[in-house]
Amino acid sequence: MGSEKMKMVREGGRRRRIKRKVKKLQKIIPGGQGLNPDMLFVRTADYILLLRLQIHFLQTLSHSHFP
Hints:
The chain is an all-alpha fold and 67 residues long. It contains two helices and no strands.
């Protein structure tokens, strides 16, 4: 197999792995189904910030009720 052909085969495998990971991310991020990768990554970042805020809130609430 030529060098160019091997490069194309590797790229194809890489693209498939990325697409598979994007599909998984779309399933676990609320509202992620059908989003293009750019918007999915923005939604993911927002979701991570929301989860961190919820953790902070619950920790604060827990400390105020159980000192």
